[in-house]
Specification:
Length: 165
């Protein structure tokens, strides 16, 4: 079993002030990069977003930077997004967060994660337990879902709450 990065979305947000912290990054192409933010954005849109039928975030975007794919997932074209935060203001469920959904896009290259990787800079500087290197697979029972071949996300999906009703 190969190593993967496990991110726990709930742990990125400070429970006291509600602000997000993503940790420092060593991405080579620019110093202000916070690569984990790009992964968190994608994870939130896949697992936390409620995929509203009428999607007010899409309707309010002045630059048509948001679109819904065939499966109902909303994606953002960062080359079109101007960072106006209209989508943040109109989201009825608070899924789109100011700190996560910004016009400036960061990139995570997963630091060439391999079986010898023990730690990453973002792991050391992000909130404790938000980012871990694990050897495991997706586990719906533990609310752990695959974002990609190398990234797992721990999140309580909104669909799971509907199943209990």
């Amino acid at each position: 079993m190969s190593k993967k990065i496990l991110i726990d979305l709930a742990k990125f947000r400070d429970p006291v002030d509600g602000k997000y912290s993503f940790g420092d990054c060593i991405y080579n192409f620019h110093q202000d990069n916070i690569g984990m933010k790009a992964i968190v954005e994608k994870a939130m849109m896949l697992f936390t977003c409620r995929r509203c039928e009428d999607a007010p975030c899409i309707e309010v975007c002045p630059e048509d930077a948001l679109e819904k794919d065939d499966d109902g997932f909303i994606t953002r074209a960062t080359n079109l997004c101007v960072g106006c935060q209209s989508c943040v203001a109109i989201c009825p469920f608070g899924t789109i967060m100011n700190e996560v959904f910004t016009y400036k896009t960061s990139v995570c290259d997963l630091c060439d994660l391999d079986d010898n990787t023990e730690t990453l800079r973002c792991m050391e500087t992000a909130p404790k337990g938000a980012i871990e290197i694990v050897e495991m697979e997706m586990s719906e029972e533990e609310n752990i879902y695959a974002l990609s071949d190398l990234v797992l996300v721990k999140e309580l999906r909104w669909e799971d709450f509907e199943k209990d009703e």
